[in-house]
Write a structure and sequence with these properties.
CATH superfamily of the largest domain: Glycogen Phosphorylase B
Mean pLDDT: 86
Strand order of the largest sheet: 3-2-1-4-5-6
CATH topology of the largest domain: Rossmann fold
Shape: globular
Number of strands: 12
Structural class: alpha/beta
Largest sheet: 6 strands, parallel
Order of helices and strands: HEHEHEHHEHEEHHEHEHEHEHEEHHH
Number of helices: 15
CATH architecture of the largest domain: 3-Layer(aba) Sandwich
Low-confidence stretches: 409-415
CATH class of the largest domain: Alpha Beta
């Protein structure tokens, strides 16, 4: 282990220990033991992930109503994920993390909704990233006949030194290491971990397991892409959908390099999609062939525009997962730090529309989860991943050029 990797791992561990302890203290003051007053027995799935994680979870969610019939299926998750899951559930319970940790009114509203006895509670809360600290006391308070939680993935003693699993839960151990070789990205993906966890839960409940074919993520195809295009003055299949930034700066590709990519395709319109906060990362930059819709579309409209585009280009983020699962030809420009865990998808799931661009010089150290062996961790947090910020735009341009050429579209004049 390099000196930087040793130092960064130690600092990473200290940070998560302190952060986890603080949030755990806050969480313990929020929800007391619930006293159910109703005989209704839904199955409650508790999800801490953001949009991308929830898109991947649609692979098993589409089966839950059938498997747990006649019990209704409820989902407790981040408010922005509701549009992804609406077709698959009976009730969505929004979980506002900030309000839950600080606002008594939010806590009481959540308490009222959850004050019932659940048939099962299935927690998918990213124990590696701290969801257990936020939701631990709430999960302990939920009355349920059986409750399950997954240990998580990539749980090394160095990267995740402080974890508290809620009482009353059956803990499913981490998926066994299959001994993948260096550079093999096929076994580490979160889809494999999700399949392993869900099937262990189904086995414990005496229910049939799901195959990889069953677990392929899917989203309902947009029925109104043409209307969304018309609302924003766009022609279907005549633009490239683009996400310029994410909510995690360590995953962001430098804006200057993105504009090099845009400049390489002067005859193609690029439509920027994302939130108002992501618009701010554009720092007022524009181009003659750029239409900035960041912060101007709902998630549903964003999904419709992605599907109506000629091509989608983005980052290791929720919109890239949406584009992939919708079947849109997509290019994901990603850091090597968690390469293989999120992008690219495992080949057995057959997402041939998905293309992943990453730095070829850093494949050997993929899976570092931002504890870089080449620089101090503060530099990575301030400037973004080394493997991403040093990735030449020519790799991105070349991949887009190849795709557009193969489909008979306009190509780069500057490559």
């Amino acid at each position: 282990m390099s000196i930087w990797r040793w130092c960064n791992t130690a600092l990473y561990g200290v940070y998560y220990r302190q952060r986890g302890a603080r949030i755990a203290r806050l969480g313990k003051t929020t929800v007391g033991l619930l006293q159910p007053e109703t005989d209704e027995n839904p199955v409650l799935y508790v999800a801490y992930g953001r949009i991308g994680d929830m898109v991947l979870a649609t692979g098993h969610f589409k089966h839950l109503r059938r498997l747990f019939h006649p019990a209704p299926v409820w989902l407790l998750g981040r408010p922005e994920t509701e549009a992804v899951f609406r077709p698959y559930i009976d009730r969505f319970v929004p979980f506002d993390e900030r309000g839950y940790l600080s606002d008594r009114a939010v806590q009481e509203t959540l308490r009222t909704v959850l004050n019932r006895r659940f048939k099962y509670v299935i927690a998918d809360i990213h124990t590696y990233y701290g969801g257990v600290f936020v939701l631990g006391s709430l999960l302990e308070a939920l009355p349920g006949a059986r409750k399950f939680i997954y240990e998580g993935y990539c749980l090394s003693s160095g990267l995740a030194p402080y974890r508290i699993y809620p009482k009353g839960f059956e803990t499913i151990s981490t998926k066994p290491d299959t001994g993948e070789q260096e550079g093999d990205l096929t076994q580490r993906h979160v889809l494999h971990h999700t399949a392993f966890y869900v099937n262990r839960v189904l086995e414990a409940l005496g229910l049939p397991c799901l195959s990889e074919t069953d677990l392929r993520p899917e989203l309902p195809e947009s029925q109104d892409g043409e209307t969304a295009c018309r609302d924003f003055g766009l022609r279907p299949k005549a633009f490239i959908a683009w996400q310029p930034a994410s909510n995690n700066r360590k995953k962001d590709y430098p804006i200057d390099r993105w504009f090099d990519v845009i400049a390489a395709f002067p005859s193609m319109t690029f439509v920027a999609l994302g939130t108002r906060q992501e618009r701010e990362k554009l720092a007022g930059r524009t181009a003659p062939n750029l239409v900035d819709l960041c912060g101007r579309t709902s998630l549903t409209q964003t999904m419709q525009l992605i599907q109506a585009a000629r091509l989608y280009v983005g980052l290791d983020s929720g919109l890239s997962h949406i584009a992939s699962v919708l079947g849109q030809t997509s290019v994901c420009v990603t850091q090597n730090s968690n390469l293989g865990y999120f992008f690219p998808y495992p080949p057995e799931y057959r997402f041939t529309n998905q293309h992943t661009v990453y730095h070829p010089d850093y494949i050997a150290c993929s899976g570092c989860f931002m504890t870089c062996q080449h620089e101090f961790i503060a530099t990575t947090y301030r400037r973004g991943s080394l493997c991403l910020r040093t990735l030449s735009p020519h790799y991105v341009i070349a991949e887009m050029e190849k795709i557009l050429s193969s489909t008979g579209g306009n190509t780069s004049e500057n490559l």
